[in-house]
């Protein structure tokens, strides 16, 4: 790798001439393309131009034209006689340190450049027509992004120290015990008036993901935000707030939020606090279209009106593991704020970045993690309850997640969305930048048992997953696990070991697929494998949705009823709606 640095320069006529010479040599790119680019760039105030210089020789060896507002490399060009890969890879390493996750839009006909960009870790996402010219948008694999970053440095060091309270709750966990613990939290954080001014409306965003928390009519704990916590918090807030809205949009079976409110007893809240408390299903709320700063992965999101118009948002996640995101805490809890199609689209365009993007648009003033009963093993809905008797609270979601993960025996960098939020400057994970009051981490640490995620294949099922992140692995495990049961045609063997006409290879993560055998069946999973899509079956998403994974794998067992993750008619409707969105891009 070359030792290069990036130096900001102005867009000059000299650069234009160099680019014209470069494209003249490729012989394929239509005339007028460079004029078209320059016209666009000169109009765009967010364009930054970097000269790539070899550190030792201070020699100019290439140019990057970068659109800061869209996190997109408009042009990257390495001069002759320099090796585009050697210089280009090093320049890209420098650029992602400055600007985080980026995309790139080379000319569709510039095959040589596309090849080395793909080798670096970009993946062809979609074609963009600009007048007579076609460009291809390539998105950087998030795994490659994490792997290439040196020590996961933040784009801008987070200067503030954040405060997180770890409050123990009496093990009887009565509403009064929780009320007392909440009082303790607000005292330590500087008083309730710091968060809610007289007459303000407060939105409580619990986690009510699905109905898996009920066993024989009883709530087993660790799946949804405990109703006692919500009730105690409402009692504390009501002397200050004008009204309180409890707002959620369930994630599994998205039309079922009202049913979830009823199952878990939330529907009683309106009668308990008449005229003061209202329940809102965010899946059916009106929305505002809001632009996402830096437009990473998605340019805008539809945000429910209730969240935009409310004065104060308090997020109430549950202390639980997540088989794909590692944890579902403060960063992950905001996924429930998005309308159904937005939730579906986040998987397609990239869940990790889109979870971070939501934090630009929905900004909770406070997070209180429900650690009364957590959930270990195969969370967020099928795991095992774990009694913790804790509440963890703070203003910064990244700091709250970092403290909570350490209590759960995890490294905050283990969760892709938490790591991404940290790198992109949403908060600190470093112990020295988080002041903890109440109990110390050491005092309450109680490691959560992680789910056993198996990438073991079968007689004819070969899994290639080196370097994949927990996202694809978690969802693939979910689908494969359903094949590890007796084959109805021959119960002495497992379905996954059923003899098939051809070997089925499943490629996951950005580094697999270098030795694809075209005479076998090849399934390529996720954005990281998009570059191989034409060589077999591609399962889109980052990570692909559970239904996409199940459909992709169970198509080889037409006699077996595929397991249901969610209501498949709803999923099919969302898939069609996503298709319409993609057509319009
Ligand atoms: S979730 Fe899958 S596609 Fe996305 S970064 Fe991880 S391995 Fe790649």
Low-confidence spans: none
Number of domains: 3
Q: What fold name goes in the CATH topology slot of the largest domain?
A: Rossmann fold
CATH architecture type of the largest domain: 3-Layer(aba) Sandwich
| Number of distinct beta strands | 27
Overview of this protein structure:
The radius of gyration is 25 Å and the shape is globular. It is of the alpha/beta class. Helix 13 (351-361) crosses helix 15 (416-423). The chain folds into three domains: 4-140, 3-Layer(aba) Sandwich (Aminopeptidase), CATH 3.40.630.30; 162-444, LarA, N-terminal domain (Rossmann fold, 3-Layer(aba) Sandwich), CATH 3.40.50.11440; 461-583, no CATH class. The strands form six sheets. Strands 8, 9, 12, 13, 16, 17, 18, 19, 20 and 21 form a ten-stranded mixed β-sheet that branches. A seven-stranded mixed β-sheet has the order 1-2-3-4-5-7-6. Strands 22-25-26-27 form a four-stranded parallel β-sheet, with helices on one face. It is built from 19 helices and 27 strands. Bound molecules: iron/sulfur cluster (SF4). Iron/sulfur cluster binds next to helix 5 and helix 17. Iron/sulfur cluster binds at residues 141-143, 468-469, 471-472, 509, 526-528, 542-543.
């Amino acid at each position: 790798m070359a030792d290069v640095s990036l130096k900001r320069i102005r867009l000059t006529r000299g650069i234009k001439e160099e680019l014209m010479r470069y494209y003249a040599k490729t012989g394929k790119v239509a005339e007028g393309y460079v004029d078209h680019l320059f016209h666009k760039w000169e109009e765009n105030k967010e364009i930054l131009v970097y000269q790539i210089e070899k550190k030792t020789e201070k020699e100019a060896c290439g140019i990057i034209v970068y659109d800061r507002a869209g996190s997109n490399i408009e042009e990257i060009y390495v001069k002759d006689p320099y090796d585009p890969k050697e210089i280009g890879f090093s320049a890209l390493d420098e650029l992602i340190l400055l600007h985080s996750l980026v995309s790139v839009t080379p000319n569709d006909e510039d095959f040589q450049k596309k090849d080395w960009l793909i080798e670096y870790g970009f993946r062809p996402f979609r074609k963009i027509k600009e007048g007579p010219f076609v460009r291809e948008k390539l998105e950087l694999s998030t795994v490659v992004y994490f792997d290439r970053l040196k020590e996961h440095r933040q784009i801008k060091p987070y200067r503030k120290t954040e405060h997180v309270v770890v409050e123990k709750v009496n093990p009887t966990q009565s509403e009064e015990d929780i009320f007392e613990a909440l009082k303790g939290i607000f005292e330590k954080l500087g008083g309730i008036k710091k968060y809610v001014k007289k007459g303000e409306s407060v939105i409580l965003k619990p986690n009510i993901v699905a109905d898996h928390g009920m066993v024989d009519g009883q709530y087993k704990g660790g799946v949804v935000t405990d109703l006692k916590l919500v009730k105690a918090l409402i009692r504390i807030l009501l002397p200050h707030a004008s009204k309180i809205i409890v707002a959620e949009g369930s994630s599994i079976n998205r039309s079922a939020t009202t049913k979830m409110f009823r199952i878990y007893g939330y529907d009683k809240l309106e009668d308990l606090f008449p005229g003061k408390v209202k329940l809102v299903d965010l899946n059916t709320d009106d929305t505002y279209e809001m632009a996402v700063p830096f437009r990473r992965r998605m340019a805008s999101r539809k945000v429910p009106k209730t969240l935009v118009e409310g004065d104060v948002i308090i997020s109430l996640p549950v202390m639980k593991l997540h088989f794909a995101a590692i944890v579902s805490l403060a960063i992950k809890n905001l996924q429930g704020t998005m309308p159904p199609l937005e939730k579906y689209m986040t998987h397609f365009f990239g869940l990790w970045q889109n979870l971070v993007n939501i934090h630009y648009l929905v900004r909770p003033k406070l997070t209180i993690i429900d650690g009364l009963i957590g959930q270990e093993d195969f969370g967020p809905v099928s795991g095992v309850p774990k009694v913790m008797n804790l509440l963890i609270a703070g203003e910064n979601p990244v700091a709250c997640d970092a403290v909570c993960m350490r209590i759960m025996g995890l490294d905050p960098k283990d969760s892709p969305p938490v790591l991404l939020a940290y790198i992109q400057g949403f908060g600190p994970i470093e112990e020295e930048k988080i002041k903890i009051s109440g109990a110390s981490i050491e005092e309450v640490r109680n490691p959560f048992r992680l789910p056993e995620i198996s990438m073991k294949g079968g007689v004819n099922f070969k899994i290639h997953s080196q370097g994949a992140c927990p996202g694809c692995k978690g969802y693939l495990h979910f689908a494969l696990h359903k094949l590890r049961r007796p084959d109805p045609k021959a119960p002495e063997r497992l379905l996954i070991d059923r003899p098939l006409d051809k070997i089925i290879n499943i490629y996951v993560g950005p580094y697999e697929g270098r030795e694809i055998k075209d005479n076998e069946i090849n399934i390529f999973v996720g954005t990281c494998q998009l570059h191989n899509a034409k060589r077999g079956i591609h399962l889109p998403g980052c990570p692909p949705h559970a239904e996409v994974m199940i459909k992709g794998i169970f198509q080889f067992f037409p006699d077996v009823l595929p397991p249901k993750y969610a209501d498949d008619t709803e999923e099919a409707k969302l898939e069609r709606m996503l298709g319409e969105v993609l057509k319009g891009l």
